[in-house]
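ok so i was messing around last nite and threw this chain in just to see what happens. nothing serious, just curious
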Amino acid sequence: MRTTLDIPEELLRNVTDILGIKKKNEAVRIALSDFVRRRRRRQLLSLRGKLAIEDLTREMEDAEIADAKGRH
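result:
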């Protein structure tokens, strides 16, 4: 889906630098995906004590890093 966004140039440059990629649309996609993942994880962890769940944060991050390396 195409969308026009007004993103501050410095912010976008920071994201592309941190991610080590040049494509702006890919940087925005990755940043948004990461934001959603972190928020969902926070919501899930807020259920701690209410449900029997195990914190697999480290394992999830390691798997995502491995997956991202495989895509680049």
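not much to say yet. Residues 9-71 form one domain.
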